[in-house]
Amino acid sequence: MTLRTRSTVIAALLTTVVVVLGWLGLLAVLQRLEDGEVRDQVTSLARQNAAIVREDSTPTLVAAEESGVAQLVIGGRVAGTAPESANRRPLTTARPAMGEPNWKGTVTWNGQRMITVGYAVPGGMVYAAQPEPGLFFDPPRAALIGAAGLVCVGLVSLATWLTMSRALASIEGIRAELHEITATDLGRRVPEPQHPEEFRRLAETVNATLGRLEEAVGRQRRFAADASHELRSPVTALRTQLDLAMSDPEPDTDATLEGLDRAIDRLQLLVDDLLAVIRLDATAPAGHERIDLGELVRTELDRRPDEITRDLAAGALVEGDRLQLARVLTNLVDNALRHAEHEVQVKVRPDADSEHAVLEVIDDGGGIPEADRERVFQRFVRLKEGRERDASGSGLGLPIAREIAEGHGGSLDIADCEHGARFVLRLPLLPGDTGPTEEPTRERQCLD
Fold first, then answer.
1. Quick one: three-class SS letters along the chain?
2. Which of 147, 376, 410, 442 could form a disulfide with 405 if both were Cys (CB 3.0 to 4.6 A apart)?
3. Tens of pLDDT along 130-139?
């Protein structure tokens, strides 16, 4: 059973239940109104007959039409009745209570429930009675109300069918468009219906997802093209040197091996960086370890032979993957050493105001123009100075560092500095001893 059919059947059943309950309730209300009208009529007839009996010794009683009856009961026996053909069995022998003008009640007489009112007269009681109206006291009216309810059920069912058809037509349009979209035409989007709002939001979400997918596929394609281009250079260098060595009758073996070694080193570095990028694209940060960023930096710098100035404050607690954060530091320090003239400085401090742990890597090189500060974080982008200082670089170190930072909920940017370049890594700070939080002055932030 389709969703449209199920929805229509459920709507029809619920409407039927509501209509039946409403129909019965309306009949009950009409019955009470009819019951009150009959009681008033019976009371009026009983009063009228009591007046006739008081004024005439041989009274002629008056009864209501449609099965009504009136009786004069004296000594427990019926002395007069209207109509004359009525049963002579007394309706009741009940009398009004002390201080009450009449008696009112419902009795069973000749197998019928009768609304009865009695007045005391000299020597006896005068009673008037009419059958109590049942729930279906007026069959044509009950049938008319029931027919109106069936019409309501039909209208609700039709409206539900049409509404669901219109709504599902939007879903069918989205499904059909998604079915046609392939990896070669990710620029297509599904139609966005204006109504209902839930389906419109669904279409917007689908289109946003398609947009992100298109961007991701585009990035992968560009990455594959750039990687192929970058890999071609060391492979070509290897082949060229081998061809030259093979064609030279007296090759310089040491020079050839040295050149091959450099080409292999560059190729290995490039492959390692490509694998790192692939892992970052495929997975989230693997670890959720509590790390003191200052201690991590101190440990990593102790392993390096380079002379690096340190300013490492305690209490910069972060959560993340130790190996990935160590790679960020390595990439930033290697970049700084590549461009520095004399000194590289690494600083770590907790910043309670911004709730971040801050790592700064500063060099005293030529710096990075403001226009290129975002370009250097693009994959395979290398500025002219970087290519001149180190032709073997891959152009992936800084992009990898930023992606790791963003994967840890932080950021990596290049800040202003009077001399050289200043890279600032910010990671969410965990609760703990944050230590001093004052902002260093410009002279302490940058190298002279």
1. CCHHHHHHHHHHHHHHHHHHHHHHHHHHHHHHHHHHHHHHHHHHHHHHHHHHHHHCCCCCCCCCCCCCEEEEEECCEEEEEECCCCCCCCCCCCCCCCCCCEEEEEEEECCEEEEEEEEEECCEEEEEEEECCCCCCCHHHHHHHHHHHHHHHHHHHHHHHHHHHHHHHHHHHHHHHHHHCCCCCCCCCCCCCCCCHHHHHHHHHHHHHHHHHHHHHHHHHHHHHHHHHHHHHHHHHHHHHHHHHHHCCCCCHHHHHHHHHHHHHHHHHHHHHHHHHHHHHHCCCCCCEEEEHHHHHHHHHHCCCCCCEEEECCCCEEEECHHHHHHHHHHHHHHHHHHCCCCEEEEEEEECCCCEEEEEEEECCCCCCHHHCCHHHCCCCCCHHHHHHCCCCCCCHHHHHHHHHHHCCCEEEEECCCCCCEEEEEEECCCCCCCCCCCCCHHHHCCC
2. 410
3. 988 877 666 7
